[in-house]
Design goal:
Radius of gyration: 24 Å
Shape: elongated
Order of helices and strands: EHEEEEEEHH
Oligomer: single chain
Distance between the termini: 58 Å
Largest sheet: 4 strands, antiparallel
Low-confidence stretches: none
Length: 139
């Protein structure tokens, strides 16, 4: 399965060639792949990859056609595939990490999504049980 590509397209001018070179240099060692090409009539410069880095905010111009989601960085931008999922960082206590690892080893054939979904469902069930018990005590 080939990953989705993002792209930047700009008019082929001397100024834009310099911009394209800076973007190329920022992406040439990328593990996400990078390709720089020209349209058939050489009127446009096309840069594409699984993810593109624009190293300086000044390089992103209004005349660029961007295919992807623009994510700001401290010094520039990243162009990411709009269809990819979002990353969520969770800070978990040691007991929860231990439980997640037990579940993960138990369900190795399942995806990370399935494991977390199961974990949240079990947590919700436990929460409901605790609330039902407290409700019965107060009655």
């Amino acid at each position: 399965m080939r990953n989705a590509m993002v792209s930047i397209e700009i008019k082929n001018t001397n100024d834009n060639i310099l911009i394209a070179r800076k973007i190329r240099d920022a992406n040439k060692d990328s593990a996400d792949g990078f390709n720089l090409k020209f349209t058939e009539d050489n009127s446009m410069i096309v840069m594409e990859g699984e993810k593109l880095t624009i190293p300086d905010k000044a390089l992103l111009t209004g005349e660029m056609k961007v295919n992807g989601m623009i994510k700001p960085l401290s010094d520039g931008f990243e162009i990411l595939d709009e269809e990819k999922g979002k990353t969520v960082n969770l800070h978990l206590d040691a007991e929860l990490v231990k439980e997640i690892n037990v579940i993960r080893s138990y369900v190795k054939s399942k995806t990370q999504h399935d494991v977390l979904l199961e974990l949240f469902k079990k947590g919700l069930e436990q929460y409901k049980k605790e609330n039902d018990t407290e409700q019965k005590r107060s009655d």
